[in-house]
Design goal:
about 270 residues, mainly beta, Dodecin subunit-like, Immunoglobulin-like, 2 domains, 2 helices, 15 strands, elongated
Amino acid sequence: MTAVVLLGLVPSLAQAAEEPVWVEAVGEAQMGEYDTQKEVKERAKRDAQQKAVEKAVGAFIRSHTFVSNNQIADDLVYASVRGKVEKAEILSEGWNQKDRNLYRVALKALVTPVYPERGEGLSIKVSLSRTLLKEGEDVRIFYQANSDCHVYLFSVAADGSVTLLLPNAQDRDNFVKGGTAVEFPSTGNPLRLEARFLPGFIGKSAEERVKIIATKNKEDIIALGFREGMFEAFDAKSTGMISDLVRRLNQLEPADWAEATAVYQINR
């Protein structure tokens, strides 16, 4: 996996649907030794709502066109549209007949699209010191958020594997003041961001992505199993996947996080 890079290429957005959508979803929660029935039922309901948002965002994606190198890049939609549950109607709920510790909730939810880029919550912008890179070249990332937040930098390879860039073992502080331009690595920092191909890659060039995520509150995103990629490149067998990251973000309130995605190219 590439240690880091970011290209200032943002996919184009076609005409977007503004109307909320009704979706149905089923959520589950397992009862633990110290859980109360009320806690389990609430967790199952939240799980159903989160899955409803995921389905609704899928509908919003189909009303957009995001193109990167002539391919539809669905996961890039999270930078521009998310969903918020406005209403929820319980269709059925109860304990599973085969597993009495499993509670299941089926509901119907009205989900409204949320567009952070229009000022509906937190937003962040990014740029890169270089756009086209040769393997081994250094690069710096520049970013700025519209309000105080915590920032997480990830490199995303073509196989969907995600490598954590910030915070890292040498720099745990990822808090950013709103309106302040930030450079990573900062001037004088001994860390280097070096463009690298995935292990075993034999092609002449590769296109990958960097995701920059900002959250109002400090989040336990690192616990998803991402490896630090400051000096190594990791593949899908050794680090977290983009699907894990997107699933975790969908659990947050739409206005409480923002994401910027950029594409970069490495050449031999």
